[in-house]
């Protein structure tokens, strides 16, 4: 079904990937910690390694919970599929995609 | 001998029907260009039956009398320092939410009913829209005047109009209403007159106004009384408009069913803010969200209204069973979001008192002690250790309702619900089956959503740091936002109630 309108109704997405240039939006969810009401949203370079993404963006956010131990994050998933959390792979190559979701457990 | 005065019914007929004419030298479709493209078929606009039959003079007379009473009370409230009689300064947070979130919607409703007063084909319907347009403007003004009394003494109330256009949690009511404004006239009537003003109104209006009455807020309570007769007129109109559309043509039924489904879920998600307000922002509770939902939605609507609508072929809204499941925990999920993001809100949040935690255990025996009490107890410990818990980052947002995605899988509060859709190769995220369903019906519309988090990341909100964004929002850091216990509102309230002599400001 499409929008009913009196004219050709066709507008671009407000968050289309090109608006973020060399970056992308990525979500991260700490799956078994209810202290965080929702997953977090980050803007990160597509070329950033997963290790850097984790240490520079995910760890400071997860440390909102003072009990967070960065070495305890495990059972990573990308968009619901198991993910090895390989350190060197770039965010783009993880396959997470613009506005996709990583999750982990502790 | 003077001619006998016309009856009110006769004057109404003359005003609406007698002053109307059929256009002859311009095609009626050009005079009323917006009432066909949605697919709704109206064969006889004269079948419109306005249940109130107000005329301009009687309408103005009633409204003037109500205004006179309201402004007398507001004057008395101001002169007698009425704000000091509240149960607690914490209560004012619900007024902040109301002024920032609801008052701008009243104004938008005023504008759009003005548009309908021009563009509906039938004179009775146009006149009803005109009256409602004036009502909504009056409500906007009286709400501003009432709540302004508190702006002299409390934070967070000074910049509500700008905030409504910019702040993340206010994009929830704003996007809801914009969705209606940008729809056709019949969808707007279903969305606002029926779904919002009839189906869900008691869950919005009663909690705020009863909350005012229970918490010593005489000014807002009086505003509520002043608006009540208008609201009951709007409610009647909402049901009338729905039945009118359904009776005009059988082909209208599936279109309207779709709108009933959509606008139930849109409205219900918006009411998440009311649920959080009821259970957490009122120092003296009226009833729990769960009780209100059972009374106003399950009993009055699902058991009262929908059996009647079955006659027209309308069934209860899609996804309503998920809302029923959520009544056990929805308010806790929403306030938990507000609690940890209140560093970026124009109100204060805090951990409920022990008495309140116990009240919640009683009100939510299935879920509170198991899932939420441990969170609040931990949040309190952290606060006492000087480490007040905030979410240090930005949240994932639902593309449709725009609320941070803090809702859980139905019936499982410990697992967050995340739904996705692909459209033109792009991924979109949703908090629930209802929000995904709404997107999938009209993806071209919702891809344009102004999502506050994504806008911040695009650099469109004054900068990328929290102070820059707060400045752009018009929120004064350390005054309007954050923890209640360390807020100026709390400090002032304590000062005003110590009994010590306080001079000056």
TrEMBL record, chain A:
**Could you name the domain of life of the organism this protein comes from?**
Bacteria
One molecular function GO term is: phenol 2-monooxygenase activity
Alphabetized Gene3D superfamilies for the sequence: Phenol hydroxylase
InterPro entries named among the record's database cross-references: Phenol_hydroxylase, Phenol_hydroxylase_sf
Q: What is this protein called?
A: Phenol hydroxylase
UniProtKB/TrEMBL annotation, chain B:
Any signal peptide, and if so, which residues? none
Q: Name one GO molecular function term.
A: monooxygenase activity
Q: Is rRNA-binding among the key words of this record?
A: no
List keywords of the entry alphabetically: Monooxygenase, Oxidoreductase
Segments forming domain YHS: 408-450
Q: Which reaction does it catalyse?
A: propane + NADH + O2 + H(+) = propan-2-ol + NAD(+) + H2O
Q: EC? A: 1.14.13.227
Q: Which Pfam families match?
A: Phenol_Hydrox, YHS
The answer to whether the entry has keyword Oxidoreductase is yes
Cited SUPFAM superfamilies: Ferritin-like (SSF47240)
Question: What is this protein identified as?
Answer: propane 2-monooxygenase
| Native organism taxonomy | Bacteria, Bacillati, Actinomycetota, Actinomycetes, Pseudonocardiales
Gene that this sequence comes from: mphN
């Amino acid at each position: 079904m499409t929008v009913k309108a009196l004219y050709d109704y066709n507008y671009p997405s407000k968050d289309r990937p090109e608006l973020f240039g060399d970056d992308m939006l990525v979500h991260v969810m700490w799956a078994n910690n209810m202290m965080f009401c929702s997953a977090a949203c980050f803007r990160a370079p597509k070329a950033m390694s997963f290790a850097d993404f984790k240490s520079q963006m995910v760890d400071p956010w997860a440390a909102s919970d003072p009990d967070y131990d960065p070495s305890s994050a495990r059972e990573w998933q990308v968009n619901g599929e198991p993910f090895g959390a390989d350190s060197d792979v770039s965010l783009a190559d993880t396959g997470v995609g613009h506005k996709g979701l990583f999750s982990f457990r502790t | 001998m003077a001619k006998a005065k016309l009856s009110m019914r006769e004057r109404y007929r003359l005003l609406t029907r007698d002053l109307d004419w059929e256009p002859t030298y311009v095609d009626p479709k050009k005079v009323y260009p917006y009432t066909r493209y949605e697919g709704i078929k109206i064969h006889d606009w004269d079948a419109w039956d306005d249940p109130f039959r107000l005329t301009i003079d009687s309408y103005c007379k009633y409204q003037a009398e109500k205004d006179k009473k309201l402004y007398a009370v507001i004057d008395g409230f101001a002169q007698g320092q009425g704000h000091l009689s509240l149960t607690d300064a914490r209560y004012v947070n619900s007024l902040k939410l109301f002024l920032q979130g609801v008052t701008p919607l009243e104004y938008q409703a005023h504008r759009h009913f003005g548009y309908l007063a021009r563009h509906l084909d039938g004179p009775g319907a146009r006149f009803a829209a005109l009256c409602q347009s004036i009502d909504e403007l009056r409500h906007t003004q009286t709400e501003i005047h009432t709540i302004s009394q508190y702006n002299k003494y409390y934070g967070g109330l000074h910049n509500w109009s700008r905030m409504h256009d910019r702040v993340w949690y206010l994009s929830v009511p704003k996007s809801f209403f914009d969705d209606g404004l940008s729809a056709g006239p019949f969808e707007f009537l279903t969305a606002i007159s029926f779904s919002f003003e009839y189906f869900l109104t008691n869950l919005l209006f009663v909690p705020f106004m009863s909350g005012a009455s229970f918490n010593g807020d005489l000014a807002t309570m009086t505003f509520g009384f002043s608006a009540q007769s208008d609201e009951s007129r709007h409610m009647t109109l909402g049901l009338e408009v729905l039945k009118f559309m359904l009776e005009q043509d059988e082909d209208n039924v599936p279109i309207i069913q779709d709108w009933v489904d959509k606008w139930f879920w849109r409205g219900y998600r918006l009411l998440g803010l009311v649920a959080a307000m009821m259970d957490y922002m009122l120092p003296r509770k009226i009833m729990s969200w769960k009780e209100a939902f059972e009374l106003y939605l399950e009993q009055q609507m699902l058991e009262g209204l929908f059996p009647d609508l079955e006659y027209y072929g309308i069934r209860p809204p899609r996804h309503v069973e998920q809302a029923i499941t959520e009544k056990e925990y929805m308010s806790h999920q929403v306030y938990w979001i507000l609690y940890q993001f209140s560093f970026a809100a124009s109100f204060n949040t805090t951990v409920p008192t022990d008495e309140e935690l116990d009240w919640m255990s009683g009100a939510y025996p299935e879920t509170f002690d198991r899932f939420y009490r441990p969170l609040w107890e931990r949040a309190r410990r952290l606060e006492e250790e000087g480490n007040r818990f905030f979410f240090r980052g930005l949240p994932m947002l639902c593309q449709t309702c725009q609320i941070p995605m803090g809702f859980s899988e139905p019936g499982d509060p410990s697992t967050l619900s995340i739904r996705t859709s692909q459209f033109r190769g792009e991924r979109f995220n949703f908090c629930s089956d209802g929000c995904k369903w709404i997107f999938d019906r009209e993806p071209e519309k919702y891809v344009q959503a102004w999502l506050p988090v994504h806008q911040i990341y695009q650099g469109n909100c004054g900068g990328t740091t929290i102070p820059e964004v707060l400045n752009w929002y018009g929120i004064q850091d350390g005054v309007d936002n954050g923890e209640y216990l360390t807020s100026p509102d709390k400090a002032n309230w304590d000062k005003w109630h110590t009994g010590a002599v306080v001079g000056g400001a």
